[in-house]
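To whoever is on call:

I kicked off a structure prediction for a single chain this morning and the downstream step that reads the tokens threw a length-mismatch warning. I double-checked the sequence; it's 207 residues and nothing unusual in it as far as I can see. Pasting both halves so you can look.
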Amino acid sequence: MKNIVLDKFSNHSIILRGFAVNLDDQLLVGINNVAGKSNFRHMKTPNGSFMSAAMTNCGEYGWISDKSGYRYEKIDPQNNKPWPHMPLIFKTLARDAADIVGYTNFESDACLINRYSPKTSMSLHQDKDERDFSQPIVSVSLGLTVMFMFGGLTRNEKPITKELYHGDVLVWGGPDRLRFHGVRPLKKARHPLVGAVRLNLTLRRAN
């Protein structure tokens, strides 16, 4: 544990630098297996526009967006089948990272996988579709470096920005659980293992 580099937004929101680097091969195999069963797709927002990041899910619940709003569902609307099982390595990594930050016994039941291409971004938003806000959020970065924005509890608060690199794991919760967050447009580059994209796992307790 003494070798883990902790980069803090606050005492409740911490980046574990490079925490997942040694697991990257296993994580990528898991992502490919999930995407082979539930394809990446660009979901529609309630107003009818497409989200710029391609997404898929695994676990008991999957996060979706359509004309009916944002929510979790047990069934993939694209193939009418349950979302793929969450790879054990995803759950274990999330639990271990959360434990280090102080959120013990975290058991994720939903993993949203985002795939960002160059120029793709994610505007400031809150993760508030889950039932229990006492549970943290664990975010795993793979591939290209991105500038992460971590705001306050209202949209108009100026965000703090930090770069997220391949293998970084960000954990936040407690009083920070509903802070606005997002990513700036991804810069064009190429990662030797992942290629010209950024992959992000967001693990949550949805129910």
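Update from on-call: the warning came from a stale cache, not from the record. Cleared it. Sanity check on the structure: The chain is about 15% helix and 35% strand.
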